[in-house]
Structure formats: structure tokens, C-alpha cells
Amino acid sequence: xxxxxxxxxxxxxxxxxxxxxxxxxxxxxxxxxxxxxxxxxxxxxxxxxxxxxxxxxxxxxxxxxxxxxxxxxxxxxxxxxxxxxxxxxxxxxxxxxxxxxxxxxxxxxxxxxxxxxxxxxxxxxxxxxxxxxxxxxxxxxxxxxxxxxxxxxxxxxxxxxxxxxxxxxxxxxxxxxxxxxxxxxxxxxxxxxxxxxxxxxxxxxxxxxxxxxxxxxxxxxxxxxxxxxxxxxxxxxxxxxxxxxxxxxxxxxxxxxxxxxxxxxxxxxxxxxxxxxxxxxxxxxxxxxxxxxxxxxxxxxxxxxxxxxxxxxxxxxxxxxxxxxxxxxxxxxxxxxxxxxxxxxxxxxxxxxxxxxxxxxxxxxxxxxxxxxxxxxxxxxxxxxxxxxxxxxxxxxxxxxxxxxxxxxxxxxxxxxxxxxxxxxxxxxxxxxxxxxxxxxxxxxxxxxxxxxxxxxxxxxxxxxxxxxxxxxxxxxxxxxxxxxxxxxxxxxxxxxxxxxxxxxxxxxxxxxxxxxxxxxxxxxxxxxxxxxxxxxxxxxxxxxxxxxxxxxxxxxxxxxxxxxxxxxxxxxxxxxxxxxxxxxxxxxxxxxxxxxxxxxxxxxxxxxxxxxxxxxxxxxxxxxxxxxxxxxxxxxxxxxxxxxxxxxxxxxxxxxxxxxxxxxxxxxxxxxxxxxxxxxxxxxxxxxxxxxxxxxxxxxxxxxxxxxxxxxxxxxxxxxxxxxxxxxxxxxxxxxxxxxxxxxxxxxxxxxxxxx
Length: 757
Fold this sequence. Notes:
By secondary structure, the chain is an alpha+beta fold. The chain has four domains: 5-184, Vaccinia Virus protein VP39 (Rossmann fold), CATH 3.40.50.150; 203-342, Nucleoside Triphosphate Pyrophosphohydrolase, CATH 3.90.79.10; 355-565, Vaccinia Virus protein VP39 (Rossmann fold), CATH 3.40.50.150; 581-720. It contains 18 helices and 34 strands. Strands 20-19-18-21-22-23-24-32-34-33 form a ten-stranded mixed beta sheet. A seven-stranded mixed beta sheet has the order 3-2-1-4-5-7-6, sandwiched between helices. It has a seven-stranded antiparallel beta sheet with strand order 25-26-28-29-30-31-27.
């Protein structure tokens, strides 16, 4: 028999019944339930209404509820003469009980139905809450001892009956004719904690202590077991993990700390043979005393270690290694699996760095400032003060403070980069372009910690940074590193950056948004969540060439203000796009379309094996001269634009990566060839050539040559064009004149000098 409404309705429609209300049940009710005086009763799971009609005959005003229409139809028919009964179609376990009398009931009954209710304790308390003062909840149910095995599902055993009454201050039981009759009052009892028998020992609980000195170095002891270990040991009976950490620190090293200066960062759980090993990772933020060797029988010596050297130490006790990685995620790669249960309370930031870090940071900041990337005083101060090395603890200081180096901090198993800290000059430029004021709220898409803390420093004590990332580990790492060395004004959020941070948008929108990964398009959420007049800085791919573009919101339009040549890790979220590509000549040449749909490549295999037309453009550049605007100019003005790539071993083409066009079974690409070699790069000369293949080689070469010459004549000395970004679907007539590059979520309009599309 099913337990759905339809099944129960069919049960009653088939004229099937339950056990009739017996005389002894009536006698018990009469003895233990007071005689009504204008009292109200609720009969739950009333079935065909026999008990409800009986209560009405005693003088109760009755609400009779059942969730089966078939039951209620029979009840209304069989007890049409009953007065004072209101029949309600109601699922007492799942429905809203608004239909019940809001003044409550003196008597609530549930007969022969409790066995069919799943959440019995919840339902009984839900009903008991509707009892009036001195009211009674009566439960009548068959008992398992008096019920055949094949009907066991309709009855309750003794343990189930005990569970019904547990927690009720008033709970009486009577038995009659194989039925248990429970009389319950309101559920106003207390609870108590109970113990089972002594558990079989199977786990050991210890604390591992993380303490650093004024130089930010970590304390490790060389144990007699020939490995490095953190201070720590077992938690004793009645002792907290933090108290154990403070005690073990003193016993093993001679250093003293207060319990209030110890904080559990996470609880770690792994298995050592047949023992469950539980380790509380405790961060001590302040200590006193002189480092000693109080337990020479256990330790050879204690030493302070630079974080980035931890992977070179040789043998490290496994729980110590797990604890170090919990405090500084990524500090020790390739650890054995461990379960980690982070604690809500985190330790306050812990100061400490070597003099070398301060010196290198000053050098980096001075270099970035000297090159003009950070003209604003608050950003200059941030570069001098925010400890970049503490957001890449596994990296040597010299590398961390290189002004022109992006540092990969998180890799996937296949060694491909997932997260990195960008070059300091580029971070400074992007922050500068936001034109921030103190107290603003900024969204960063793509987390890591350092860039967010630079922003927080620029925004001041009343500012706020929301940093969102798709990767849970990156968010976890950012959270921990910001907790260790941050301002407390950075909020890491797990989510797909193309959606922005909808739960954190301030009234009026973000005062600035910075994207820290390559993106193929401008996500609508960025424009929608940006305050009008505020700036979005985004590394946008145009024909596969990335430029950090500063865009100011003007209503639904984004107006470009600045371009910076750059490169970032690519987007990995829902908006990520894999450019369609075609391999030719057995993989010697690959053609890909970074924007738009693939072109027609029929005939290209044959064309590449034919003669190559080489056409000079007569556009000559000195060595080390940037032609970054030519790349974007070609990508946005040439029909059939694509990118060509070839391995070093390719003999078919002269460029490893080049701008190209494809049409009519032919291909042409841009080559930059040295025509004069001098003693210095500045005195050398390079000329742009067009290499073309196929029957339309002459036409494609002429088209590409004209593009290069137009760039040289009109664009080379003027820089990037005027650019506006409009929502996808904007009609052509509402766009300004210019070259339109359509992307899935936006329409980009480029207005190049000297060009009328």
C-alpha cells in the first residue's frame, strides 16, 4: 500500500477501513480527557471520521483533517448527521497549517496513523504547539508486540514509542487491546546529553603549533626521529586544542604564549595505519621568551626557516607538513591526502618579514614608479608597504619582487597554470586606470591576494574589495594569505567571474571593476554591476591579441579611455571560448579564428605546397619598435582575419605566430624581417613583408600591404583608436560609425584615424 495522497484516496474509495473505535478506547478517553466545556478538538489523519464524530457527540467542536480526498468523501457521507465538525483536506506533515484554528485546541488526537508519518517527532511538536493550556495530545497506535509480522509497518515498537514521548514534560501511557494510548502535553521539556558505552579507542587528537619570528620565519624542530616537526603534541583530558598548543610550545621550545593568542585555523584528519589522526592546526600570533631545548631526548635542535625553503628541507613529519600547508596553501606541494575542516574564526594578521624583503620591495616600487606606472601617491605608498612576497610564500624573495615578472602560484596536475600574481608594473597600471578614491568598493575578478590588498590599501580603511574566483582552491588560498598578511578589507568569493558578484554589489554599483585574466568578451554583468561613470579595466582579446582596456560606463555604453599591451592567463569560466582552428599540412601550420566563425579552408593544403609570393610593404621599423597597434588594426579592419601558428620545425612558413587572412583558397600572413643588422638593436632595421599562397595570393598580398601602409600613414604615430562597447543586439543604426567587431555579448566599434569603413 502506497503512502501518497492518491494511494490513500484509492484505499478509501475501495471501501477499505481501519480498525473501528473500540469501547475500551472510548473509556480511556473518557477517563483521562476532561469533559468538554465549549472545547475544541483536532482529529489528525481522521480517515473516515469515526473518532471525529465521536468527539463531536461528546460536545467538542471538531476540526477533522486528512490528506486523502477519498477518506473525507466517506467521512462526510457516513457522518452527515454530525454537528460541529469541519472536514479539512490537509497534509499534517507537509502543508501549511494556516487553516487550523488559530486559537488552538484543548484536545488533539492522531489515531492509527503515526506509523505512517516519517518525521514523527517534528509533527508531534508541531501539533503540541497548538494545544491550549492544560490541553492533551493523544496518540493511539498498534504495538509491534501485538501485530503480525506482515503488518509490522502499521505498528510501533517499544523503542519507537519511547522516541515519541522523549522530551515531553507530560507523557502517560496506557495499553488496551494491543494498542498503546499516549497522552502528551506541550513539548516544553528540556534536553540532556547522553553517553553511549566507552568507545573503542581509534583516534588520537593533537595540536600542531605554527609560530613565526619577527622576520616571518617558521619554527621547526629537528627531532630524534630524523625529521623536521612543528611544536605540538596530544591534547590532554579536559584540555582545549589552543591550551594544548600553548603548553606544548612551552614544554618543547621554552617559548611562552597566551591561549588568547592561539587560534585554530583548521582541524585536519588523516589515517595513520588503523588510527584516525586528528590535528588542530593552531596559529600562535604572539609569543615571548628565548628559544631553548627543554626536551633534548626528543629534539636535536630548533631552527627558524624561510617559508620558500620548506620544500628543500627533506623529511617533514606529515601532520606538520599538512599544518604548514593549511596556514600557507601551496607552501608544500604534493602532500598526501588529508581532510580539512576550516574554522570560522581566523587568526589576526601576523607581522614579520626579513630586512631583505623590505629592501627588495622598495627597489620594485621605485622601479615601477620611476617608469611612470604609478603616479598617484596612494598607489605608490601601497607598492612600498603591501608585502608582495607573503602572497606567494613558496617563491624566493628576489623572484617575488621582480618588477617585470608574473609568478604562477597555482597549477593543475598537468602543470598548466591556474592562478598567478601579475607583473607589478601591470598591476600598478590597471589600478591606476581605475582612478579610485578612498572609501570606494571595487570588484576584482580573478583572485590571488596581492592585487586585492594593493586595492584595499589604495581605498583606505573605509574601502572594500570583493575578489571572486571560479577555483575553490584559489579562493581558499586567497582567504588564508589575506588573513595572514592582509588588511581585513578583502572579501574572497567563490563564483564564476563572468557573473560578477551579484550578492555584494553596493547601492549604485561597484566604483571600479578590474579583471585579472584574459577574456574573449565583455560580460554583461560587469557593465550592469558597474556604477555609471565608473571604470572597468579588462584584458580583452581582439583577434587573439590582448590589451588591458580601460572602459568608462556611460549608460549602456562603455567608452575606452586607455589601452595597455599585456598578457594574462585565459578565462576558465562559463564564458571561456576555445577558438576554432584548422591544422594544415600535417600540423605544420594551424589557422585559428579568435573572433567569428571559421573561414573556408578548402584549397589551402594545395596552396601551401605551391609557390610563396613575398611582397615588401616598404614600411620599415627600427629595432625594438612597438607595432602593437598594427595587430589590433589588422584584426579589426581586414576581412577574413585569422591567426597563423607554426612549430619551430615548420619549413612552410617563416613566422611562428602571425596575423593572417584567408580567402578564395588562399592565405597571406604578416612577416617582420630584418633587412639591416647593426651593432645595436636601435640601429637595426626591420621591414614588414606579406607572404601569400594560392590562386588569390596577389590580391591578398595587396590587401594586406594596403592595411600595413594605412596603419603606417594614419595610426602608427597616433596610437589606439576610439572604441565603444555596446550590448549585443544593439541595432546597427544605433552604433556610431566605425569598424564593428561582434562578440557573443557585445558589439565593439573601432574608429581608426584616417579610415572610413
